[in-house]
Write a structure and sequence with these properties.
By secondary structure, the protein is of the alpha/beta class. It contains 16 helices and 15 strands. Helix 5 crosses helix 10 and helix 7 packs parallel to helix 8 (183-193). The longest helix has 23 residues, at 296-318. The structure holds pyridoxal-5'-phosphate.
């Protein structure tokens, strides 16, 4: 990076400050992670210069021999990682992958059924400010307010809602849901109402790849994901199908009249449907990340992510916090702060002042706006990558508790900042700036 330092000191200085922030603070945002140097190197490579519209062997540009090799590696590794038959590694992001799902499976104004954004769902699952809520008719299922399933999805209620609204597609997937999903039950409901089943595993993809959570691929008709959350690859998206099948809409190939397979429809929905040229440098980085995820050490990483989240949830409960759904199955924890007389925004700001990064988050049945919120969301993927175990994570909860008990206290913030720095020095990250 010495060229960049000379050529553009302003950008370089900002990159260096961001690297320091990542090195010297606690990253508890549930959707973030730290990629390896190899993943970074693949991203900062000559492949950023290459146009490669189309698929390997069928490109609209010349000079694609080597990017074809790279994309084929990414595809075969992704198939091995998830045990699936079909994959497209070109979506620029999770939202782009989801756009291709809608374009393939839905007509404008068709009804689909997804998890309520206020109960942990994602913007691309029908929010009125997102294309998914503007172009399509979104209906929602949610989590239970109380009772034995408080904070969890009740599948009987999902079925009742599906029978009432008769969706063309049912989506599963969330950004703030700490529990695993019963994919077989979702599929039974989808079959009963004649709907397609789509799983968006953006958050838990790495844990699913490692086999520590239920596997959606045998049950969902189509699966989308990001590659940068628990999967620990570059920022990007991907689409997968467990066993490819003839599309149920009767769409045929232009000349032969052959019924096209679902994977073919999704390929067309990515390009030319919703994207132009793929980001070949990012696809190279995806290939590198998938190789890493195929190694036995990644399974151990995923187990540790899960153990760390469980240890933190237990410690929060022991300290009197309200953990939504009473715990976690995966990498994230949602805290409802309404019994602490504090908003999510206040908690986020107080923790940030102590170099602990989380995000404010709506909790189920929240009465505050998305800018204020009653909760915070935190997750363990990033700290686990830098080597934190259960005992370090339990110590972190103690530090967070001290800040949240005295959110205005400079003394507490300063003390905790010092302890954060010590913990970070004990678990160093590589040097991003010179990577
Ligand atoms: C993060 C996320 C996405 C969007 O991913 P981007 O890469 O930010 O577009 C989509 N769906 C779910 C469930 C997510 O958590």
């Amino acid at each position: 990076m010495s060229d960049l330092k000379l050529q553009d000191p302003d950008v370089y200085a900002a990159l260096a400050r961001e690297a320091d922030r990542q090195n010297n603070g606690l990253e508890l945002i549930a959707s973030e992670n730290f990629v390896s140097r190899s993943v970074m190197q693949a991203m900062g490579s000559s492949l950023t210069n290459k146009y490669a519209e189309g698929l390997p062997g069928r490109r609209y540009y010349g000079g694609c021999t080597y990017v074809d090799e790279v994309e084929d590696l990414a595809r075969s590794r992704a198939r091995a990682l998830f045990g699936c038959e079909w994959v497209n590694v070109q979506p620029h992001s999770g939202a782009s992958a989801n756009a291709a799902v809608y374009l393939t499976c839905m007509n404008p104004r068709d009804t689909f059924l997804g998890l309520d954004l206020a109960h942990g769902g994602h913007l691309t699952h029908g929010s009125p400010v997102n294309f998914s809520g503007i172009l399509y008719q979104a209906e929602y299922y949610g989590v239970e307010p109380d009772g034995p399933l408080a904070g969890r999805i009740d599948m009987d209620r999902v079925r009742d809602t599906a029978l009432r609204v008769r969706p063309r597609m049912i989506s599963i997937g969330a950004s703030a849901y700490a529990r695993d999903f019963d994919y077989a039950a979702f599929r039974a409901i989808a079959d009963e109402v004649g709907a397609l089943l789509w799983m968006d595993m953006a958050h838990p993809a790495g844990l699913i790849a490692a086999g520590v959570l239920n596997d959606p691929l045998p049950h969902a008709h189509v699966v989308s994901t990001t590659t940068h959350k628990t999967l620990r690859g570059p920022r990007g998206g991907m689409l997968l199908i467990g066993r490819d099948f003839p599309n149920p809409f009767g769409r045929t190939a232009p000349k032969s009249g052959r019924t096209r397979r679902m994977g073919e429809l999704l390929d067309s929905a990515v390009f030319p449907g919703t994207q132009g040229g793929p980001l070949m440098h990012v696809i190279a980085a995806k290939a590198v990340a998938f190789k890493e995820a195929l190694e036995p050490s990644f399974k151990e990483y995923a187990r540790q992510v899960q153990r760390n989240a469980a240890a933190m949830a237990e410690e929060f409960l022991a300290r009197g916090y309200h953990v939504v759904s009473g715990g976690t199955d995966n990498h994230l924890i949602l805290l409802d702060l309404r019994n602490r007389d504090m908003t999510g925004r206040q908690a986020e700001q107080a923790l940030q002042a102590a170099d602990i990064t989380v995000n404010k988050n709506m909790v189920p049945f929240d009465d505050k706006s998305p800018f204020v919120t009653s909760g915070i969301r935190l997750g363990t993927p990033a700290v686990t990558t830098r080597g934190f175990d259960e005992s370090a994570c339990t110590v972190v909860v103690g530090m967070m508790d001290r800040v949240l008990q005295a959110p205005q206290s400079d003394t507490v913030r300063r003390a905790v900042r010092g302890e954060v720095l010590e913990l970070c020095h004990a678990h160093p990250l590589y040097d991003f700036v010179t990577a």
